[in-house]
Design brief:
This protein is an alpha/beta fold and 300 residues long. The radius of gyration is 22 Å and the shape is elongated. Helix 3 (92-112) runs antiparallel to helix 10 (271-289). Helix content is 36%, strand content 16%. It has eleven helices and ten strands.
């Protein structure tokens, strides 16, 4: 892809067709597919954004200007995580592009988005927690956001695939216990299914799904507790698997609908921020036109 100009396809999650060697950034709400129009066989009538338009869209997304909660920061963390997965040899051009996007986003947020994004998906999810214990599935940035906003006095079980990936307790959460998903179905002295007098059994528990997890593993975690009063599913629509239908479910779409009513979400995007995005996109395209040696020169 050396020497190509910036081109991308933007679609809701799960709507983009795959390419021979896809390079895609995926969030809960959208996919951004970086393509080479010269070599990728694009689906008919697939809209492709180029150069300044493509850069402006990417910058708007990373700044949180395209999010239901204007100015939220989780999407920026997701973009950083995506950049970390790229192959430095094969995708060096995209890593350098990402560094420029992140630098521009940081500047725009500092100048024009102070006070926006104070609400987060973690904050919205925490508002729906019911009971005195939370079973939090996931150990990534989204799970940490949920943990950061949980009320004082709660006991939290963090379920992950490895015990070396741990969340950092904050605030007044009473206890945090890290558990292995692979052992969810195994006998446990604290498991509600094993001992009717155990702390877990006596607890009313909310299950919060903050990472992709298969149906078998998720149901094993849910089955670990006797009194599950609610499940909060933060997974994207195409990642969702069945949860016991007897358990009241709060979906991501429910949280986004709630977020849309929050003052920080309904506030207009600052005109200055939108104008600065366009200015930086034009600067990106102009720099591209002046650089005859391709991406390595462009993003240096």
């Amino acid at each position: 892809m050396f020497g190509m100009r910036l081109a991308l396809i933007h679609r809701p999650t799960g709507a983009i067709q795959t390419f021979p060697r896809p390079t895609a950034w995926r969030t809960c709400l959208r996919e951004v597919q970086f393509v080479d129009p010269a070599t990728d066989a694009l689906p008919p009538n697939e809209p492709v954004l180029h150069d300044a338009d493509a850069y402006a869209l990417l910058l708007e997304i990373v700044c949180g200007l395209r999010s239901p909660l204007i100015g939220e920061t989780e999407v920026q963390a997701q973009f950083k995580a995506f950049m970390a997965t790229l192959d430095p040899a094969a995708d060096g051009w995209l890593r350098r592009l990402g560094e420029r996007v992140l630098a521009d986003a940081k500047s725009i947020r500092h100048q024009h988005l102070q006070g926006f994004g104070s609400h987060s998906y973690g904050w919205l999810a925490a508002r729906w927690v019911h009971g005195d214990r939370v079973a939090l599935v996931g150990t990534g940035a989204l799970a940490q956001q949920v943990l950061n906003h949980l009320a004082a006095g709660l006991a939290v079980d963090v379920w992950g695939r490895r015990l070396d990936r741990r969340l950092t307790p904050t605030g007044d959460v009473r206890t945090v216990r890290h558990c292995l998903i692979a052992e969810a179905g195994a006998p446990d002295k604290d498991a509600g299914s094993q001992d009717a007098g155990s702390p877990v059994s006596r607890s009313t528990t909310t299950v919060v799904v903050a990472a992709p997890v298969g149906e078998h593993d998720l149901n094993a975690v849910v089955g670990h507790y006797r009194q599950v009063t609610r499940a909060i599913d933060l997974r994207a629509v195409d990642q969702q698997t069945a949860i016991d239908p007897a358990i009241p479910l709060v979906s991501l779409s429910t949280l986004l609908a709630e977020g849309a009513t929050a003052s920080v979400a309904t506030a207009s995007v600052p005109a200055e921020a939108a104008a600065e995005v366009r200015r930086r996109a034009r600067a990106f395209a102009s720099r591209e036109e002046l650089r005859p040696f391709g991406w390595d020169d462009l993003c240096a």
